[in-house]
From TrEMBL:
Residues in ABC transmembrane type-1 domain copies: 70-261
Protein name: ABC transporter permease
The organism of origin for this protein: Angustibacter luteus
Pfam family, one: BPD_transp_1
Domain of life: Bacteria
Principal place of residence: membrane
Amino acid sequence: MSATGRRRARFQRRLRWLVLGLAVVFFVTPLWAMAVFSTSSPHGVTFDTWRQLLHVGQLSRDYPSFVDGVRLSAILVVLTVVLMLVLLVPTMTWVRLRLPALRRPMEFLCLLPLTIPAIVLVVGLAPVYAWVTYFVGPSSVWLCFAYVVLVLPYAYRAIDAGLSAIDVRTLSEAARGLGASWPRVFWSVITPNIRTALVSASFLCVALVLGEYTIASLMSRNNLQVGILQLSQRTPAISVAVSLAALVLCFLLLIVLTLATGHRRKERETG
């Protein structure tokens, strides 16, 4: 390698470390401030706030609204992920196989929620939820329908990348030629090949549902973020500790997803 090439490689290496350092400072500083705030007391450092979070029974008695919000968010996460996968994956696969002319209109519809402010979505969804409440009851779990609309752009991009990485038509025609039915083609051929994309889309759904506040608040529902806001008005230290725990949980999920994806890619390359 020439002297110019070595200097360029050294500069690029230092630039990468500089960007990585700035990113670490940018992300870690707020988390560190939250950790310090949640462990501070007039008498010094204390972990009483975090101990309170571990006693679910006591937490339920002291902050029942917050615990209900956590439970609702957990249910909404499951429902939203399941509905999103059931709605998007077969539809996108079928459009690729049989209706390629509808790919652009479908992409436009799925990305449309990105351009609509949440307050406008709430105004539009309010009459719909009035009918939902009239027919099936006032349960907050029906927020999953609104959340599926919210996650459509992100989930569509993740699944579309997975489908674009494989030859859907050739795989399905080969399976059909061997006598497989369409359901078997979908579950045994297409789905295993886009598993990483499905995991990515599911993780995005989890992160979005756990962080959603506007729609739940404007519709007078009590999810995790609304519960944290109400908690902050009574005990700011606990609300900050809960927010920090939720952020750390999301980071851990992202790390697990990255490791799992890298391990699976390495297995494919070696196997």
